[in-house]
Amino acid sequence: MALFPMFVDLQDKDIVVIGAGVVALRKIEQLSKFSPKLTVIAPIIHEEIRVLSKTHAMTLLEREYVIEDCENRFLVIGALDDLCEQEKIYNACRQTKTPVNCVDSPALCSFIFPALIVQGDLCVGINTSGKAPAVSSALRQHLTKLIPEGVHHLIERVHAVRQNEKAGKERQEKIITMCRDFFSSMIKG
Fold first, then answer.
1. Tens digit of pLDDT for each residue in 11-27?
2. Total domain count, the chain
3. Which of 12, 95, 114, 145 is most enclosed, with most CB atoms within 10 A?
4. Strand order in the sheet with 14-18
5. Structure confidence by residue, pLDDT tens digits, 30-60
6. Rounded Cα distance, 16 and 169, in Å
7. 86, 112, 138 - which closes a domain
8. Are residue 68 and residue 157 in the same domain, yes or no?
9. Could you give the CA distance from residue 94 to residue 136 in angstroms, rounded to a whole number?
10. Is 185 helix (H, G, I), strand (E, B) or coil?
11. Which neighbouring-strand residues pair with 41?
């Protein structure tokens, strides 16, 4: 069964990533775009995560995790190769109703981490309900090429209209026309 896509504000939310290898790096790269309060815990931290921590606010804890590290978090990402440890993380989060994603283990996830396309305020999430992450990734690469250049300008223009003009049929028609004109020019161009 397909999963319901839900977009959530992560700004300043307390998120922990347990593990700091290549898989964790991919998750951290995506999460950091949304300005959470990010903590990464692992005995060895991938060098690219260290580099990323210089430009994005995150706390790096070089140590083994303890299950209490999952407490009072908005989200928990278990990016460990050890299935037994993933199960511990999943069960701890389930007890506290904390959303958890244990990478490459769909049965140990209360949410799926989608393949993301992020361009300014545009965010497209793609998932296959955990069945085929490679398909999500390939589709993300394909769709990224199809998103018109300048769509972020359209988003800003529509936002300005919504902020400055009275709600109603006239405003809605103006927005529809702006969108239609933008995408028509993409087809002609």
1. 999 999 999 999 999 99
2. 2
3. 114
4. 58-62, 37-42, 14-18, 75-78, 100-102
5. 999 999 999 999 999 999 999 999 999 899 9
6. 45
7. 112
8. no
9. 26
10. helix
11. 18, 61
Do residues 60 and 40 touch, judged by C-beta distance below 8 A? yes
* 28 contacts: CB under 8 Å, gap ≥ 6: 17, 38, 40, 49, 52, 58
The model carries a pTM of 0.87
Q: How far apart are CA 110 and CA 51, in angstroms?
A: 30
Are 103 and 18 in the same domain?
A: yes
Scan for tokens 């701890």, then name that residue.
92
Contact 144, 116 (CB under 8 A): no
Amino acid in the structure at residue 30: Q
E strand or H helix that includes residue 101: strand 100-102
Q: Are residues 166 and 94 in the same domain?
A: no
Which tokens go with 123?
Answer: 């965010």
| CB-based burial label for 147 (10 Å; 0-12, 13-18, 19+) | middle
Amino acid letter, residue 56: H
